[in-house]
């Protein structure tokens, strides 16, 4: 009887030991599984953070690329040839004329050390202002020239009136000269301001642009918007508005069109 009791005691001890070993291993397995799951979660989180960091870095790079000042403080000599539009007649301040606004764009947005020079005057034409100052312009060795002439050629009371055919010849000769004497200089032609015969003169300007591969900035949409015109009686640095010339907004619109062309030259 005593031997049987000892046998059952030993058996119970073995069963208890087996259960301890079994549950111990199960606990270890559970811990290992939990640690594995925790590690996987940590890896996933780190990967997500890494991906987010790369994405953020890429976006910042793209933004910086867009906002980068491509001029890097390089010198850029800009010469404007024009009439009363370039003279800024009927803007609030003289420096609100389109060529001044455009120069500020070259400086502040594109990052060039841009300077403005040139010849402009109310009533000016190719033969009255561009041809007489041609040698001076060449001597300036500009990087960029804008030519905004052709409106006053349409005025038959102007002593320098020229029909569309004669105007086209004069403009072609002017552009050909600059192309020859200033081969590295970039040129931009502007269409004329509002006049009854603008269509034929604008056609002449575009024909010269095509002939010499010079871009033409069409400003006809600017004067079609009444808010771009200096209304009669409106105050300006040059006197009261005349209901014809562009005001500050109109000059800004012209400068914006030039800026788009400058982007084609220097950014794209």
Describe the overall structure.
β4, α7 (about 200-210) and β5 form a beta-alpha-beta unit. Helices cover about 55% and strands about 10% of the residues. The chain is globular, with a radius of gyration of 38 Å. It has a 5-stranded parallel β-sheet with strand order 2-1-3-4-5. The termini are far apart. With about 270 residues, the chain is of the alpha/beta class. The chain has 2 domains: about 1-70; about 75-265, SGNH hydrolase (Rossmann fold, 3-Layer(aba) Sandwich).
Q: What is the CATH fold-level name of the largest domain? A: Rossmann fold
- The low-confidence parts are 20-66
Q: Which class do the helix and strand fractions yield?
A: alpha/beta
Count of helical stretches:
9
Order of helices and strands: HEHHEHHEHEHEHH
Could you give a short account of the major beta sheet?
A: 5 strands, parallel
Q: Over the alpha carbons, how many angstroms does the gyration radius reach?
A: 38 Å
Number of domains: 2
Query: What's the arrangement of strands in the largest beta sheet?
Result: 2-1-3-4-5
Strand proportion, as a percent range, falls in 5-15%
Q: What general outline do the C-alpha atoms trace? A: globular
Q: CATH superfamily assignment of the largest domain?
A: SGNH hydrolase
In whole angstroms, the N-to-C terminal distance is: 105 Å
> Please, what is the oligomeric state?
single chain
Provide the CATH top-level class of the largest domain: Alpha Beta
| Number of β-strand runs | 5
What is the name of the CATH architecture of the largest domain? 3-Layer(aba) Sandwich
């Amino acid at each position: 009887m005593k031997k049987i009791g000892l046998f059952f005691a030993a058996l119970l001890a073995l069963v208890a030991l087996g259960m301890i070993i079994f549950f111990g291993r199960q606990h270890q397995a559970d811990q290992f599984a939990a640690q594995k799951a925790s590690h996987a979660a940590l890896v996933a989180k780190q990967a997500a953070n890494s991906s987010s960091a790369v994405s953020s870095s890429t976006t910042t790079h793209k933004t910086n690329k867009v906002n980068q000042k491509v001029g890097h403080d390089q010198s850029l000599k800009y010469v404007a040839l024009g009439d009363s539009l370039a003279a800024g007649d009927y803007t609030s301040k003289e420096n609100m004329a389109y060529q001044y606004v455009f120069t500020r764009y070259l400086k502040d947005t594109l990052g060039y050390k841009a300077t403005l020079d040139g010849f402009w005057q109310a009533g000016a034409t190719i033969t009255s202002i561009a041809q007489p100052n041609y040698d001076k312009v060449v001597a300036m060795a500009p990087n960029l020239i804008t030519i905004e002439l052709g409106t006053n050629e349409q005025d038959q009371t102007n002593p320098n009136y020229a029909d569309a055919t004669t105007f086209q010849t004069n403009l072609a000769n002017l552009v050909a000269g600059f192309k020859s004497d200033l081969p590295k200089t970039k040129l931009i032609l502007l269409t004329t301001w509002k006049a009854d015969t603008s269509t034929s003169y604008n056609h002449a300007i575009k024909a010269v642009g095509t002939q010499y591969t010079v871009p033409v900035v069409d400003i006809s949409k600017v004067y079609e918007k009444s808010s771009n015109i200096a209304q009669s009686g409106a105050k300006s640095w040059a006197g009261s508005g005349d209901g014809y010339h562009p005001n500050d907004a109109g000059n800004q619109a012209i400068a914006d069109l030039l800026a788009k062309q400058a982007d084609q030259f220097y950014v794209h």
